[in-house]
């Protein structure tokens, strides 16, 4: 058919009537696509809820930021509607659709017949239903009216709170910040933009936004919006914090706008259900854009709209092609922040992460590979290769040939011979810098390797290359391979497979670089996995806790179950509960309370432990806070029988009763336990005090043992009664109880600061040698006192009974089921 | 009418990087996970190795490490990863308007009715 270029009024009656509900990006794009294929086919009317022409909604952020004006973001002005003989009914929203009569009715009562209908109602901002959510001054970020409200508020200056740290929320926050407001972002999740970014990239983004003056509160749950004089005045969080606000922007998410379609009886799930040709359950009705659900997926980004509109136009003009779903990518429209994500980076089966971090330049890159294909990418700080990765991903190209070099980007990966990293390193000149932190050239590294440093670790200790941030580890490894061929020695074991650093390196660098959170440590130390693993997360959590007492916030997610639930998990999934008995002493009242608790909570086994405590077995996770409350009420606290922590101080009865006793071993044991309880350690830690050399408390197979003698106290360390029994080494003899306590604190702190996570004192003493430990403790006159003082500072923050906190209702979610499922009573039909 | 999906609660009831449990009377307890990326997965709460409660393991990426013997289990497929062999049933799950839904027949079998409380 030869389409007429201009509109012929006489043709009206023959033409089908196409009505579009929605004057937004999807609705107008669909019309554009149809006109491009067959401009004469339809008589077109577009209904828009907003009283204006079609504009580019995703450019509202630059309008808010003052970088663009409304006129600049208009896609189709009035002339476009006129030229194409499209009737635009703007500002009169459609009230309902009558599918039987094939008409729709607007709010003002206008009735419009259709032959074909396109629903492009987009999405609605989601308002969290907290008290105050309808107050004047609470706005969403969806259309130009919202932007005008925000700009009006910004003119008055003052405080803005943005609820939601996703793409939209952060763009709103950025705009308001540029407009001079003091902005706080309140985000429910621990990571900003958690749908698009992983934890590591989210951490970098947060740090950058904070540097720009925004306050970012993550893990913050809004409880209410506060009012003063009929206007919004602030936001209160569930933890009680209140933040002042002259305007509150709700940007927590969007929902497909489906109410019209639902009321019309079309099939609706999350969105309006469409087939591959964008046709709904009614053949005369099509739908497109954010309001639809296609193959189970709803999209909130613009790129899929274009593909959908093409498929819709093909169908509407009689040449059906089909839409197969979209792979999406995200870029944050905040100037100066480079951030890109695409595809699946959640880590699926058989997928492998390739991570590159450059702490000095604030760069984090991660690509996810499955088989021979790239399936996802997250880039922060350097997004130059974003489009290249996205292209590889969409086309599903075989990347096996460039896999090794993929993370370095297109220029490197496409460089022919340079695609082999070893070849690339071989091509470097001798004076090329390998390690920027320590200024080591390639020539120096090669000389160091030729001089006998045959492992990464010896290179690090000899010429310092790769010993600081680790970002050049790959280069040094290439040089080792090039210089030595196959003779590279593997160095000491790294902390885990997520890092090239050893435990000692990580502990040293946490202090040197003042690293204070797990994501920060992973970024600065170039972790090769995005979230670490079950080995390194608990280790990092302990190292940070030890390094920064009172400052580091314990990450419960990185704790083993026992330390998260403060009880010992058993093989059947129940728990055992051990109340503390100081020095192994108890009272009739305590025993009664324990007996009552054992009966009340159905402890199936009650056992006396090797550490002189009573262990109640078979307690259910849900009952733990209640049993702790009961034990607390009788004056007992957590026995930490579950933790990498001070477990027990075992004692004999000593001089108070025993005819051989030389000192008050029980009393000293109680004092030691009062001093040391609650402390987190690299591994479990057991102490005993025996009143005489007969050693009934078995002090010489404990981590720290005291054997009392007539003239004082013999101190022993590094014993272990486990798989490999190891008797203690004699450390020294002291004369007073005070000295015994001080030396005990000092030894514990040395162990806390130097041992590897999950290393008991026995292997630690064997690894570093008793002489080295003695030298560290005794060579300088003040060391004992300093170590003991550091231990006491740390104890200030750890001697809080975790049972009392939980019994008081903290973290109830850890103990309660989310719900329970019970079959309904089904009546018997006789 | 009984829907195809069982509403078990709000997404906000599970902290990212953790799991919560859903006991099923007359059936297997289910562990519902939320990853740090905000994805949700549901598995029978039993490690294929020695039936350890997977809900209590450390979650990293889309993997949970069983608290009893450190088997790594994929949250997406329920398969044991690495050298270990075994598989735990996955319960189809969807999130809609801030609520978590499990496929009813996977929770309680095809014929019976049930309610979540």
What does this structure look like?
- The complex is a heterodimer of chains A (830) and B (117).
- Chain A has 830 residues and is α/β, with parallel strands linked by helices.
- Chain A has five domains: 176 residues, FAD/NAD(P)-binding domain (3-Layer(bba) Sandwich), CATH 3.50.50; 126 residues, FAD/NAD(P)-binding domain; 82 residues, FAD/NAD-linked reductase, C-terminal dimerisation domain (Enolase-like, domain 1), CATH 3.30.390; 83 residues, Sulfite Reductase Hemoprotein, domain 2 (Alpha-Beta Complex), CATH 3.90.480.10; 153 residues, Sulfite Reductase Hemoprotein, domain 1, CATH 3.30.413.
- Chain A contains 27 helices and 39 strands.
- In chain A, the strands form eleven sheets. In chain A, strands 5-2-1-9-21 form a five-stranded parallel β-sheet, covered by helices on one side. A five-stranded parallel β-sheet of chain A has the order 11-18-12-13-14.
- In chain A, α13 crosses α15.
- Chain A is globular, with a radius of gyration of 34 Å.
- Chain A starts with 15 loop residues before the first strand and ends in a 7-residue tail after the last strand.
- The N terminus and C terminus of chain A are likely disordered.
- Chain B has a domain of 78 residues: Rieske [2Fe-2S] iron-sulphur domain (Rieske Iron-sulfur Protein).
- Chain B is 4% helix and 38% strand.
- The radius of gyration of chain B is 14 Å and the shape is globular.
- Classes of the chains: A alpha/beta (830), B mainly beta (117).
- At the A-B interface, α19 and β39 of A face β1, β2, β5 and β11 of B.
- β39 of chain A pairs antiparallel with β11 of chain B, so a sheet runs across the interface.
